[in-house]
Amino acid sequence: MPKPRILIIEDEPDIREILQYSLEREGFEVAVATDGLAGLQAVRKKAPDLLMLDLMLPGIDGLEICRRLKGDPTTAGIPVVMVTAKGDEADIVLGLGLGADDYVPKPFSPKEVVARVRAVLRRSDGARGEDTTRVVTHGDLTIDPNRHKVFLGDDEVNLTATEFRILQHLAGRPGRVFDRDQILAAAVGPNTVVTDRSVDVHIRAIRKKLGDRRDLVETVRGIGYRFAE
Ligand code: CA
What we know:
The protein is α/β, with parallel strands linked by helices. 40% of the residues lie in helices and 21% in strands. It has 2 domains: 5-125, 3-Layer(aba) Sandwich (Rossmann fold), CATH 3.40.50; 136-227, Winged helix-like DNA-binding domain superfamily/Winged helix DNA-binding domain (Arc Repressor Mutant, subunit A). It has 8 helices and 12 strands. The site of calcium ion has 5 residues, from loops.
């Protein structure tokens, strides 16, 4: 199997080197670009399997790169992991809305970076065969879209249609963070009228019904929610 190819777009030499070293040591093939324009050209020349994207870049910034890549069908499928600074919550939410897959906040440990990269690559492999009728299981939790039912062991968990869609959306992509707008969009189904537009209220209700498995739905402070990995 060929090595997964990662492109790092990062202007700070120290961070670029740590990323490159950590990923190469784990067997990834790594290419680097030091500014936004060079990064975009590198993607167009040879599409990487995953892009590590700094947000604060000279020239074209990270969010703009993300917007351009996700808006172009030939590059939209490339997973993007944003490299973010502390206090970047608003930009993280924007980036996720633009289609970025995940983010690593600075300062990060090399171990954390490698774990996030592996998780995103795994998810993007899985997403190719994605099927909304797939039964999702996590420990004793079973989400069955065909029957529109959720079980904890043998016990059925009675969710509303909106709660079901939110849980299915989160659980279908464990570890991925969704902001409230994305969760709301997922909650609006063909036969669902969302009367209460507060995602937090739905999440609270889902957690309550999950009882001691409530921790499966994690809060990501300042950003949104994710299902435990
Ligand atoms: Ca930077």
